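Section 5.1 Outputs to date
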Amino acid sequence: MTTETAKTQAVVDGDQSIPAPVEVPPTGEEINLDASENYFNRELSLLQFNYRVLKQALDTTHPLINRLIFCCIFSSNMDEFFEIRVAGLRQQMKYGRETIGADGMMPEQALGEISRVAHEYIHEQYDILNNVLIPEMERENIHFVRRREWTPEQAEWVRNYFEEEILPVVSPIGLDPSHPFPRLVNKSLNFIVELDGKDAFGRETGMAIVPAPRSLPRLVRLPDEVCDGGDNLVFLSSMIHAHADELFPGMEVKGCYQFRLTRNADLELEDDLEDLASALRGELLSRRFGDGVRLEVADNCPQELVQFLLTEFGLTERDLYQVHGPVNLTRLMAVGGLVDRPDLTYSGFSPSIPRQIRSKESMFDAIRKRPILLLHPYQNFSPVVDLLRQAAKDPQVLAIRQTLYRTGADSEIVEALADAARRGKEVTAVIELRARFSEAENLELASRLQEAGVIVVYGVVGYKTHAKMILIVRREEGRLRRYVHLGTGNYHAANARLYTDYSFLTCDESIGDDVNKLFQQLTGMGKALKIKKLFHSPFTLHSRLLSLIDREAGFGEKGRIILKFNGLTEIQLIKALYRASQAGAKIDLIIRGICCLRPEVPGLSDNIRVRSIIGRFLEHTRVYYFGNNGRPEVYCSSADGMERNLLSRVETAFPIEDPALVARLREDLDTYLADNCQSWMLQPDGSYIQNQPAEDEERFASQLVLLERLTGKT
């Protein structure tokens, strides 16, 4: 942003005036900030994050079953990567709409590099599973019993299970002119079967497809009475392999091989829809049958069958992943529920509740006393639910407004909103139907709330409502007071036990007025209203972040920036950080996933360090810290440093002004910066190196430190 542009923007943004940035003179040879070598490819950076998750499966400081779950999470992440990111690149090429990112890589080039890297990572994943995790589980008396290892008693039990549970629901499909290749559901487990002989009608098909029933578990526990102790698990695929001949009586099964097709699962909705909910319902049906983007096949499948499948799905060798093991590793997450081994999983803990809340019967009284900042999952999410429950029952509460992105139709929050509406309060829910992979659940949520009398709004077409806001209007002593919750994460109690997120509860008048105006913009129509304290996209958040970064650049070596994002891809933001680094400002970026910024490059980003924290909990907090020459300004936000968050979504960044809370946030950030074992440092070449404690240094795992600090547990 130029100085003149920043000055103009400060006038447009009204009350949120920030001093215009100081122009930073170039030092030495001026660097071209537009040069492609200054940026990493976002898709390859995302693959790097998935790889860091996979490496947790080798970290023996995690319990064994949780290490297996990390291996499964890698599979789940890779599924979404192909469904969305790879599918998007293929769509660009299909329709001739190739776009080049700041890194200068064309879609075809990116797909080639993605294939190379993904094949390496997936090969390593199966190596970890087969040669590390499964042997370690064997030593813990947890066995994945293969067909060749079944005892006669186990084989008989499997036969009975097949005949009683599998055979009645499986539908084998012979391939011939009257039975074309079936349309297989995205990510479903299937088998391609080689046959010899003629069926009852005299047909010689030679080939059949067997879709595994989606209603059946992929992993089944063998009864203790047919085993010699321990936990014994058998794969559904093994059962189908063993009894494939019963699906084709009178014919010889020459081979049975599992495969799985990943399809394009991104939804495309036009901006001029008359009925978003109806259009979305239609798109959800098509998601299951989008274009194929990846084929996973057992590595013992004959080459002619592999080529047959590739041709059928319109894929090439680049899209083929031949794996040594089950093609659907995500389903191995079921192990945690099938074996009772608490010694091999994370120990439980009780999230704490601040004394300020425990000592007060009323959440309203506690918030009036001073603002409250909670860090989940270390601190309980229940105060947020309690606030809504109390508001629903409080006769002094007149209205409740809330945004819902990922919540769940059966959550306590939804029940509280429905209860408030039934009691006659004005309740408005702004539901984002397009929350990826939660669309169907959000449609159900909307119907349930509407039945209870809640006014349901679907946000703004073309701009996902990603902000997390609750506004409660309460009559107190003859006037109306607004109570507000603002968060960095979703209103989902289950996620609040797994994700790190901040919840901020306040009755600050200016913030309450700002949130009220934001709801007016979401539910009504009109020009953007003047906001006092919050930054909000797509209007002011982007320009404000740039201005704050430029201000720190103006302080030179006294400048201090700490940003915690889930991802950083927005080029203007990256350029501003480069300029601040060149001016001497010290910058630490804590970025869990994608980072397109290249750190620690001489003359470009000498003063920028980037680290990623990977651990028991998914890092999800977004915090912006600016030193402001000794007068720190700190914001929490729903927004990452990505184009979609800053330019095409409804997001909020809210200031934390209470000195004690500012100090608390800085302490939390410093805890992450001090991590020497769960943190990975991004290198100038794009690789990540995991930090390790020095010989004379103790392990300092930020999440464990926060867990002990806030709950007293380790």
